[in-house]
Amino acid sequence: MHIRVAQPADWPAVWPFFHAITAAGDTYTYPRDLTSEQGRSWWMLTAPGRTVVAVDEDGTVLGSAKMNPNQAGGGAHIASASFMVAPGHAGRGIGRALGEHVIEWARAEGYRGIQFNAVVEANTRAVRLWKSLGFEVVGTVPEGFRLPDGSYTGLHVMYRPL
Length: 162
What we know:
Layout: E1 2-5, H1 11-24, H2 36-43, E2 50-55, E3 61-69, E4 78-85, H3 94-108, E5 113-120, H4 124-132, E6 136-146, E7 152-161
Parallel strand pairs: 4-5
Antiparallel strand pairs: 1-2, 2-3, 3-4, 5-7, 6-7
C-alpha cells in the first residue's frame, strides 16, 4: 500500500465509499444525502488543507484522509483530519496507516497537536484506533450524535499533542 496526495481524477474512486459511509449515517456528522459534487467540495481539500489516498499496488483506492488546520487565526496551530476506508478493505491496517501519515504530516508542517472534533462514541473501532495512536478523549458531548435508528450517542473530542 502507498499513500499519496489525491488528484482530482481520484474522486470517482473515492466517491463510492464516501457516499456509502456518509449515507449510512452512523460515523460522520455529514448530511446523509450529499451529492457527488457536494461531497467532493467537503473532502477534496486545497491548501492549507490536504487530501490523500491509500492505494494498493494496482492503483485501487483503498481509503482516503483529509487534513487541515482545525481553526483559523489563533487556533491554526492545531490540525484536524478525517478518514474513510472503503468498507471492502476494512481490517487491513489502512486506517492506521492513514492515521500515522496524518500525524507525520502535521508534525512536519509544524502543528502543535491534532484535534478530532466529532468522533462518534459508538464508533468503537475508530475510538480504539485513535487511542492506540496516542489520542485521548478530552471531552464528550452527551447525545451529540443521532444514529440512524433514532437513538443518540456521544460525540468525542479527541486530541494528540505533537
